[in-house]
Amino acid sequence: MSAKCISCVKPVRPRQQGLLCDGCLRWQHRTCGTGISLTDYRTAVQNGDSIDWRCETCMSESIIPVAESTPVLFADSDINNSADNESTIYEAVADPPVINDHSVNEPDLPADPAALNESSILDPPAAVTFQILQDSTMKGRPKLVDSRGHCYNVKRRRPNATDWQCTIRRKLNPCRAAVIQRSDGTFHPGVHSHNHTSDVGAAISATITAKVKAKTVEDIFKPASAIVEEVLLEELTDAPCPALSKPEYIARAANRLRQKLRPKDPTTLDFEIEDDHIPDGFFVSDVKVRERRHIMFHA
């Protein structure tokens, strides 16, 4: 954001609370006479909502119907005190031509007025919730997922808080959205909003990945592809989940986790056999002859 302010002609920087005019698409500082309070601005940023705002130039150039502007431009006292103003008002607000009201209103309004549902307009937007999923990334690290489908990873851990940053970190236009997790378990979104769309089904995708890795560690002899298929049948619903990776990619990540848990290759003949990593009934015997060692398994 390097554009200049409409009012003070100074650059509008990222942390200076800039507002974009919906008419001319130019920027202006919030404190330069926009009429938007700090409380309304912070509420919109935290909820990810847009602010419908126009600059003074666009407001003056916009065409407002006379019938809508009359209650603002004229007061009741002015109408009662001046007969000239009264005639002027009635001349300005002319009677509209007679139109069949049924043909205009019936397609928009239901027959029963009680059928009008205003809950979607009056109810406040739902609060954003957060959920931490352990071992849900491909590298086995925790991931924070919000109810809107945005994902975060750990940026920094402090004594009393943990800073989470958005996982979309492009080189040219990285997302600066962040969340602060306090020591009491509460989450506080940062001042920056996301500059990209959310991933539908991000929470389900992270849950499936974490559950596959947990089962892979519990049963190291079961094929990873079978574990992935089992978890998908348990967690997936009829809802679309485009954020989910391909099953073969999830199985590949599980196999990489198993490789890290395997014992290291021996460098000498004096090594111990760990029975936990050998299937039951597969090991036969361990024979040492002179300077050689023979380990036999069932074919």
TrEMBL record:
The lineage of its organism: Eukaryota, Metazoa, Cnidaria, Anthozoa, Hexacorallia. It holds the Pfam family FLYWCH. InterPro entries: Zinc_finger_PHD-type_CS, Znf_FLYWCH, Znf_FYVE_PHD, Znf_RING/FYVE/PHD. This is FLYWCH-type domain-containing protein. The keyword Zinc-finger applies. GO terms for molecular function: zinc ion binding. Keywords: Metal-binding, Zinc, Zinc-finger. PANTHER family: FLYWCH-TYPE DOMAIN-CONTAINING PROTEIN (PTHR20956:SF12), HEH2P (PTHR20956). Residues 136-196 form the FLYWCH-type domain.
